[in-house]
From TrEMBL, chains A, B:
Listed name of the protein: LacI family transcriptional regulator
Pfam families in alphabetical order: LacI, Peripla_BP_3
Transmembrane annotation, as ranges: none
Keywords (A to Z) from UniProt: DNA-binding, Transcription, Transcription regulation
Organism from which the protein derives: Herbiconiux gentiana
Domain HTH cro/C1-type residues, every copy: 8-42
Residue stretches making up the HTH lacI-type domain: 9-62
Amino acid sequence: MNDRPRPWTMQQIAEAAGVSVTTVSHTLSGKRPVHPDTALRINRLIDEHGYVPDAGARRLKSGRSQVIGLAVPDISHWYFGRIARGVEEMANEHDHGLIIASTSNSDPRREKRYFNMLRTRAIDGLVYTASREIKPTDELVSMASSPAPIVLADEDIEELEGLPSVTSTNYSGARDLGRHVRSLGHTKAVIIAGFPGLHSTVQRMRGIRESFPNALAIHGDFEIRSGYELMSDLIAHEVKFTAVFACNDFMAIGAMRRLWEEGLRVPEDVSVVGFDDVDMASVVTPGLTTVRQDMLEIGRQSAKLLLDGLAAGSMEGIGSVRLPVELVLRGTTGPVAD
Amino acid sequence: MNDRPRPWTMQQIAEAAGVSVTTVSHTLSGKRPVHPDTALRINRLIDEHGYVPDAGARRLKSGRSQVIGLAVPDISHWYFGRIARGVEEMANEHDHGLIIASTSNSDPRREKRYFNMLRTRAIDGLVYTASREIKPTDELVSMASSPAPIVLADEDIEELEGLPSVTSTNYSGARDLGRHVRSLGHTKAVIIAGFPGLHSTVQRMRGIRESFPNALAIHGDFEIRSGYELMSDLIAHEVKFTAVFACNDFMAIGAMRRLWEEGLRVPEDVSVVGFDDVDMASVVTPGLTTVRQDMLEIGRQSAKLLLDGLAAGSMEGIGSVRLPVELVLRGTTGPVAD
DNA sequence: CTGAAAGCGCTTACAG
DNA sequence: CTGAAAGCGCTTACAG
């Protein structure tokens, strides 16, 4: 079926060098001394033929594939792309490959594939980034208790408490944002929140409500369009507010666009804030006040925890990590109009 | 080192079912008939213990890993994220895994890793997306002649003519854009181009110059900041123009921002166009006139070509693909001011 | 400093 | 419809 020339095997290198495969293997691994002359001869052959040991055979003996997996809802999304980049960087630094798999909103068939990969040892461990819908499959839940080599990135999951996780300090970030807006004199605020089931959404709402206990909350799906449409609803219902908290920047930007179409000025008539600090946040006019999350670092740390556990031989004793966030003041927040 | 419980082997399933591993293997593969009762018994055991055949052992025999690789400069970038998503979708539809690797601007050490993966058969094939710098390593060049199972996505490379590629019709897209702007009466245009070495940049410049033969061209790095700074330079040098062609949307948006700061109105004073149609293009004010590329489809088709070649056992006879683009007229282009 | 041999967990002719 | 056995390409005790 495949007529590509088969690459050289260790056996062939050994024959060409007039030694045993044992010696070639040890020349490669350095796990026992090899006579310099012999080593030189072998290394010449290796270079000459571009020999590389077969990954599968190696794994069959060692039991480790040197590959970790990353499950994300959508790799093409800015947010998950940053996480992926971080995971990939860390994996690379530790000489591991990265298998990426879109869960595309928790298609259970797809998810099953990743856990199977884990079981077939195609991957040694998994960084799992919760989909928007957040209902872990039974499979995941059952693995969580093992404890399997799985780390949750970006989002904690109730049912998966046994697993280490890396998340932002959503609560305190939102609290700072709330205080900032409150300090500008605002009292009537609305929250364009994320999926109600997400930990991060719950935390951010709690943070905001510390300053705005009665803020009206409506839920969107984190996309620009969603912010736009929810703002349309608020306007249609003649809801009164002077400040808008969106649970991410995209929804904030969608809302801003709708306000602009309505002839409402930001921040003169309405203050708007987001969460994340995406690229776009500094490009829209005026620049968006928001909270910066370090998604790259979330990815890096998640991979780190996983690789640490793998190296230790067990996830036992691997703790979770909370990463700080940073308030970024730009042009969309201003004193309340009187 | 690793004290996770070892999963069941086929041998153990066979013993528990009172049959040989041969029969278990055939029950799994369906490559020869198995008595229904026997099959039932085996399948029960398999389900019960969540048995999955070891990927490495399987590959050792079959010679195929069922995993393809994707090399991109930066997975967290919108542009490459879309490609990755497409590749992943197609791989998934063909029951293949996807190993992602950032080339991070052609770090030669990293690139070497991917070609090694190819050689160790950790991956069966590679979708290669050219970095911005575009100087393929000798390694890649030597593989291109094999022909190795490699497909170029998004960008053609001179030295790698032997490899199949999937790209947009950059020339005709830029030509349409040029004609559109020309038809609005503009005669003085500048081009904020991409890296001079990229095929796509060359093609787009050619397309624009069909309508604006004398357009001044300066080169940027495709980022927002770059468009902003190049526009600053043009302004500082008091270059006269009424239209700006940017080789991608990000640079167009950066340029718009700088024009806005300068008090120049778009499109009343200056018309601006981009290329790509990124999310942001429809969100900025006014909406950006651009050319839509289907990056997802570029990813999908690239993977398709690769998988086709893999299935056929050879890349011999796998052709290249050119995907159409679409002119998207929004608010940044208008009649030339008189 | 080196080698013969067992074995990792599968697949697949070969034989019945 | 089923099984014994060879072998994929390595690693690693064991022996010298």
